[in-house]
Amino acid sequence: MLAYTVSANSKTDYSDESSDEPSQETVRIKDVIRQTHSLSDDELITRPTISSDDVFDYRNFLDHKEGGQIEKFFRAISSNDIMERSEDWGIDRSIYTRYSRSGFFADCAWADALHHGEYLDYPEMQTFAEIRMPLVFCIIFAARASRPNEIQKGIIPLSVNLLDRYISKNRQDTRRLMLIATTVEGVDGAYSLEEVVIYNLIAAACYFISDRYNGINNTSISVLLLQWEAACRLFMRTLSAAKFIFEDRKLASRVILEFMFDIYATIDYKLTVPFPSFMVQNLIVASKDLPYSQNPSAHNIYQLLAFILTRIAVVDDCFHRFPSSIIALSTYALLRKLAINDKVIRDNSKTWLVVDEQNVQVEQCMKLLAKTLVQYVDTDVLDALTQPVNVMNRRQDLFAFIFDEVHSIDIHQIAPVAMTIYNLLEEPNQQQG
């Protein structure tokens, strides 16, 4: 069952204002529609199912029970209305409709194809399950410290994605990871590596790959290793790895490089992965009615919440059961519910994409996102999961720690919004009860 529908409300003018002759793209689209549904030129323009503005006139564009689905899809993804109504910031905003709409489905398919699923339930994964969140926090800290002046948000999600995909491939044979580490000269003799240290070096390798892949300029391995060592000193579960790196950085670098080569081979060099954080931001600017900042370097409350919710899905392994498409759609649905509650938008009549909130996975993901956000804001669950060395003012510090490179976070401002989102999902259940 698909978790979305495409609205018929987005209109496209097939006429060319500058010329009486239709463009090649217009002719191509008409030919595709005509061949698919055997329509004449008059029907292409005047068919009621295309031009209707009825609130409920949206449907799944792949559901062939009714006619006009392909036409609606072309109209939805090729609309110029957002580009024409936006302020002039010197930006080609056609990408907000043409890529964000048509490309969203391709992003979903590719991201879901690389989804690692729930792998921490295996008995061999007990140690890694305990250390995974501290390792994610180390990635966040190291990425921020090594690139303080870069507005680059792809390093962290790619690092975590590589870590999850690589470990999931070795979930039933962790001894292979130990063998890779011991093949490095000097490891088997002078050192006896603990399992937690090996997992730490694997996480460092994933971070190094991501930094080299997404960073604006190249940063040397030695600099990245120093930042990683500093990050490992912040959490109890990673102190042993910090000690190992401090005692012999050259040996640690060789082990990390060995894992980097194996990571490349294991994931078949597939590094380009669409992330829910970017997918949701594209949905926001392509929605027609959901407000967003015209300034690309600034974000309003809805864009900020999108970053927070999708970052939570990266940090917390509870979301491993949901593919990226479900996380993106669920986040987008929560933002729309909040906007309707705020009376910023009235309903779903003006958007091109309507999320099916009755879909089992979407419903479960929405509830888990809202619940986890409240827990992270109002409880000390992050402290229990990460075990930081410094526990002073830990709740506020840890929450801001996750999102600092995204935006300046005030936990006291986020807390009431988190409760509002949670209550919006609980109200229907209370009414049914």
TrEMBL record:
<protein>
    <submittedName>
        <fullName>Uncharacterized protein</fullName>
    </submittedName>
</protein>
<feature type="compositionally biased region" description="Polar residues">
    <location>
        <begin position="1"/>
        <end position="12"/>
    </location>
</feature>
<feature type="region of interest" description="Disordered">
    <location>
        <begin position="1"/>
        <end position="26"/>
    </location>
</feature>
